[in-house]
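Bug report (template v2)

What were you trying to do?
Predict the complex of my protein with aspartic acid.

What happened?
Run completed; filing so the output is reviewed.

Input:
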Amino acid sequence: MRRTHTCGDLRSSDLGKEVCLQGWVRFSRDHGGVAFIDLADRYGITQVVFDPEDLPAGTDAQALANVMKTFTRESAVSVNGIVRKRVDGTEDARNKTGEVEVLITSAELLSRSEVPPFEIGDQKEGVLPSEDVRLEYRYLDLRRTEMIRAIEFRSKFIHLARQYLESQGFLEIETPMLAKSTPEGARDYVVPSRVHPGTFYALPQSPQLYKQMLMVAGMDRYYQVARCFRDEDSRKDRQPEFTQLDIEMSFIEEKDIQDNMERMLAYIWKGLYGEELQIPFPRISYMEAMERYGSDKPDLRYGLPLEKLTEVFRETNYGIMKKIVAEGGIIVGMNLKKDIAGDKIGRNDVDRYIALAKKFGLGGLTWMRVVNGELDSNIVKYFTDDNKKGIKETMKAEEGDLIFLMAGPWKRTLEGAGLMRRQLAADLGLVPEGTFQFHWLVDCPMFEVDPVSGKKDAFHHPFVLPYDNFKKGACFDILLNGNELGSGSMRINRPEMQVEVLHQLGLSDERIEENFGWFIKALSYGAPPHGGIAIGVDRVIAILLGKETIRDTIAFPKNKKAESLIDGSPDKIDDEKLEELQLMSLAMDDVNFDIEEEDIE
Ligand code: ASP
């Protein structure tokens, strides 16, 4: 028996048709011997009815009733029947099949379901079980409309991206999963080699070097929906394996990559929403993003900019500020204007923000209000007249405004101020819901120095083309609503330059040869000027769908502890398998020291 329709198909125009529907028993209700079942599948829900009083002549009502009794919730079932109009007043306008129902004439249990651990309805968040339960029973969780829509949306997004890229001559090329480690900055997941005991493959953190070698190979335009693996400590909302839309192009400039991405996103936008996406996206330099918004991925849908006050405090009696300026730090202010914020933030709220400042890595938070045209707070007495004038002018301070000052070392202070800005925007309801704002972050540094360890690191990765005497890198990020969707760059295409950058990162000739010799060799065979970008697919889908976590966009994600609850991985493997790989686990409960000692004797 094959289904004639899905559970989302039937309409009034189908009245009287004999149909076969197959799906899952979502809910059933018994009204005095008449059973109403919501039969569900990916496409929708159709009401099917077992009505013993209304069966075609010759139907064995008892036999049918017996089958119906086996229809436990979430069982897979098949029903044959006749489409009829619902009784007046019982139509369900929210459901596209809601005008009709199917009078069951025969039925079959295809596969019985145990009592599901949670209800597969369209429940509100509060009614859902914990995420771990959802992940353990993901096949049930994925039956929920919300999850179905997310998976469909993701599939459509990727399909549209492929359509666009293919139309522009990009080739989809797979690159190895078993690879040599490429230093993207995280730990590798490693896979032991049985054939070469004691050696390991690494799962790719990204296809970076392979895609670059494809450019050396003359493939010219590459893309891949690439799975990437990074063994990171549980950073917020990251997955050990995630998906990038990975792209690389030859004989191009930075702008060509950005233009192509804008056109691709506009194409996807049209396909998803039927609307034009405004391109080109605005560009903001790294410096401006940091000093004006306190973040390298600022959300520009709302204001609350930072103003620099370092010079205003060069001469002051306020000891803390004086010291910070003398030590080369930065002072920034944020004006919470009376109408949007000043009036809403009371003394207790200010205390809360002072406490939060510590959490955001700031040394503290200095605040004042404009009262009767003057700055008012308990520290103003330490300000010189020039300080006060400078603050008022720079901050464009007006009656009733509340002003926050944050000061300290450049990066830490700006990042802290950026977090404060985000918190305030959320608290004050300044973030517009359901709006999307793409940006490019451009003009980025080549290297960053970790303020704590003093270690020099690549701002993106070591394959970015440097310029301006290594001060800048030809790299950029694509941002959406205060999130980094992905990053791209022009790449180094000459071996000497690649070696130089690795040297600058502190790598010895031996290390360079050992880790990158193979790649630098490839660059020495006429590597074309090339560049590319990778867009985080999970992240973009999550933002577009307004999901709190990327886990809600992935069919089978790991939980926050990098566990796959559905299959119980990671898990131990048999001793025989370990032996075959010539490996031994040092995890305490795996090692039987007694036996080892005996073996030694
Ligand atoms: N491979 C880089 C990353 O994963 C992206 C790129 O530069 O294309 O961040």
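What did the reviewer find?
Residues 177 and 203 are 5 Å apart (CA to CA). The chain has 17 helices and 25 strands.
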